[in-house]
Every structure is written in C-alpha cells, then in structure tokens.
Design goal:
Length: 296
C-alpha cells in the first residue's frame, strides 16, 4: 500500500543498531530504498523546528559533509533543523532517512511533500513504526525520537532550547550508549540553551562534520574527507541556488544580499541562508559594510 513495504524485526534489512535498543519496534513501514536500512553507518542530525539562520546553515553544512563522507543522515522530517539536515545530505547526493511520527500516508508537515519525494527517489527512505492512517500527536513524536536515536551511531543536536524534542532524542541516545554531539551557539540565543546544557552534561562539542567523524571512528578523518574536499573544489556538492549566487559574484564586485537577490531573482531569505552557508564553506567573505565577495 502507498508504495511502501513492511520490514520486520527479523528481516536482514532491519536497521542493526535499532535491534539493540530496549524496546525496538516489531517492524518498520518503509518507502524508498529499504535495503539501505541495513547500514550501521548512520548519524542523526536533529534540532528545533524554530531554527535560526545560524542553526539551519550549520546543520545543512554538517549533514552535507557527513553524507559526502559516506554516512547516512537520519532525521525526523520536521520543519527547521530536520529539513536542513535532509537537504544537506541531498546536496551531497548522499543518503538520508526521514523517520515519521505518523503513518507514511500522512504527509507531515505538508510543505515537505516534495522533500520526502526527493529522499525516497534518491537512494534514501521514509520510515515509520506507525500504521497507515495514524496521525501525529504529542505521544507519537517521542516514540519517533527513540527510533532516530536508536538507529544512529551518533546524534548531533544542532539547535534546541532546554525542553525540546531533540533533548529527548539526545537523552535516549545516551541511555543506549550512543555518542551525543552538540553544536554551540551564542550564549544569549534561547535556541542554543539546550545544546549548551548537553555540552555541560558531557556531550561532545561539534562545530563540523570532522569532529563527529573523528569521534565515531577514533582516528583522524583526512582520508575519510578526501572525497568531500574534492567535491568542494569542483563545486559538485553545491546546491543550484548556491551556484547562482557564486555566478553573480564572479564579476568581481562585492554585492549586498539585496543586490544578490535582485541579480539572481531569488527570494531574500533564500539568498541570506545560502550566503551564510557559502561563508561557512570559505567560498565567500563578508566585508565590513555587509557586502559579500567571492574568495579566490
């Protein structure tokens, strides 16, 4: 039904790490590449639905670099950080899993319908332990969060307040003996308080994918990131929007975000998000007057 299959706990493609948690599901409804579930090379990237530009850009970049290194990015398909994580993995032509807090026939949030199609069509998978017709409610999301933590070798909380669902995911990961990472933010930013609390309580501070990869592998990751660096040099892992922005800046003059939006005919919020991502990548630099120029 609905183009999905049921993967039982006893199936060889059932996520191996998920079998280790105290209360694994009897099975999963899966749409997309069910065979990919058999991999243990998984990292979850989660966070608040009310994400800041900083949190969104960093989550997308880290997820992209994790995917470029061969990791499968797991998240919950929600607005904000989850969406950025899935999009980052797709930017790198990588694999990503979206774990639903409802039945697979319930598209939630509805604005992510196209994203979910892309995930399933590009080697990833949509999955849920809930039957068709089950709608999301306050109880289903904590259950969903336990699956995200359970099927991942490590969990990165990219942005969260102190009481967010991402904290539930991190706590469950800790209980299961999985690695927990947190992205630091500004001290005055409410959305970073949860991350800062996790760091105080023992989570590993992570500012880039290399921090996560090194911790999980126990060794430096220069070789693991060689493919990522090659892609970065050629621009193969850039989104179409980022390429348009770089093309606009290649004329040599520094441009304000407004000017970039005008030249590329892109919405200002999309321009701002991509400029920050390109700045984090070291591809563009922001001048004192707020204009951006390409880094040669």
């Amino acid at each position: 039904a609905y183009g999905a299959r049921f993967v039982a706990f006893s199936d060889e493609t059932f996520p191996p790490l998920l079998k280790e948690i105290p209360d694994p599901p009897l099975g999963l409804y899966v749409r997309g590449n069910a065979d990919a579930l058999a991999s243990a090379e998984t990292v979850a990237v989660v966070g608040t639905r009310k994400a800041s530009l900083y949190g969104t850009a960093n989550a997308r970049k880290i997820a992209r670099d994790l995917a470029a290194s061969g990791k499968i990015v797991v998240s919950g398909g929600a607005r904000g950080i989850d969406t950025a994580a899935h999009e980052g993995a797709l930017d790198a032509a990588g694999t990503t899993f979206a774990v639903f807090g409802c039945g697979l026939d319930v598209v939630y949030p509805p604005e992510n319908a196209e994203l979910f199609k892309k995930i399933a069509a590009n080697g990833g998978a949509l999955l849920s332990e809930f039957p068709f017709g089950k709608k999301a409610d306050r109880r289903t999301f904590p259950q969903r969060n336990r699956l995200i933590a359970g099927m991942a070798a490590g969990v990165l909380v990219a942005e969260s307040d102190e009481a967010g669902g991402s904290i539930i995911t991190a706590n469950f990961a800790t209980d299961c003996g999985r690695a927990v990472f947190a992205l630091p933010g500004r001290v005055e930013q409410p959305g970073s308080r949860g991350c800062h609390r996790l760091i105080r309580e023992g989570a590993t501070l992570a500012t880039c994918a290399a921090d996560i990869l090194e911790d999980l592998s126990g060794k430096p990751v220069q070789q693991m990131l060689a493919l990522k660096n090659a892609c970065a040099e050629t621009g193969e892992n850039l989104s179409a929007e980022a390429r348009k922005i770089l093309a606009a800046l290649r004329g040599g003059e520094a441009l304000s975000p407004d000017a970039v939006a005008e030249r590329t005919d892109m919405p200002f919020p999309l321009v701002s998000a991509n400029l920050l991502l390109l700045e984090l990548d070291g591809r563009v630099a922001r001048k004192a007057d707020g204009a951006y120029e390409i880094v040669l």
